[in-house]
Amino acid sequence: HIEATGLTDLSSVLFCLLLVALQPLCWNITARYEYRTHFLTKLIFNQPRYACYTLAVTILLSTIFKDRLFINAIEANPTWPLLDNLVVNTIACISFGLGSLFVLSSTWQLGVTGTYLGDYFGILLPAKVTGFPFNVLEHPMYVGSTMCFFAQALWHQSLVGLFLTSVIYVVYLVAAKFEGEFTNYIYAQKDKKVGAEGKQK
């Protein structure tokens, strides 16, 4: 690492920012288009579960690529010596541990389809998940992921990493708002349908 105050590789930061912004935008557009047209389901032999798995793999691969760009941006730019101490390293370890716990436990609670927008494919959960970590945080996966980025930024003593983490968190907040609103709409439509079927009986 270079101990300096300015950026030495702006392109690495811009590439990371671009993917950070585009990733949730792309998966939300894709999922909403699937909900309205079932285009992915039709492509995957009319199998909504396999179509959801396909989107899940795509999101996972793009996330791994984003994580790599994040590390590249950190490594290509200066460190901040003030962050090189035991207290900061301890905070980084705690943040990474808690963040990983939130991400993994929320994935366990939701399952693959619940985690990767399965409700847009018509794969709905029978009831709202209220167990840990959803009884602690509204969006544990996004918060946990942000905590892991924050931990990496601290561990590498990177101001660039802290800046990127703040941008990632804002993007996640926006994504969570849009996803939450549309998910509520999907389940409201389900309740309407169930209610209508009940009246017909």
Structure description:
- The chain has helices at 10-37, 39-43, 48-75, 86-115, 140-155, 159-200.
- The radius of gyration is 20 Å and the shape is elongated.
- The N and C termini lie far apart (70 Å).
- It is mainly α and 201 residues long.
- The protein has 6 helices and no strands.
- The model has no long low-confidence stretch (mean pLDDT 92).
How many whole angstroms does the radius of gyration measure?
20 Å
Number of strands: 0
Strand content: under 5%
- The helix fraction, in percent, is over 70%
Average per-residue pLDDT, rounded, comes to: 92
SSE order and pairing:
Elements: H1 10-37, H2 39-43, H3 48-75, H4 86-115, H5 140-155, H6 159-200
Descriptive key words:
single chain, 201 residues, 6 helices, elongated
Task: Describe, in short, the structure shown.
By secondary structure, the protein is mainly alpha-helical.
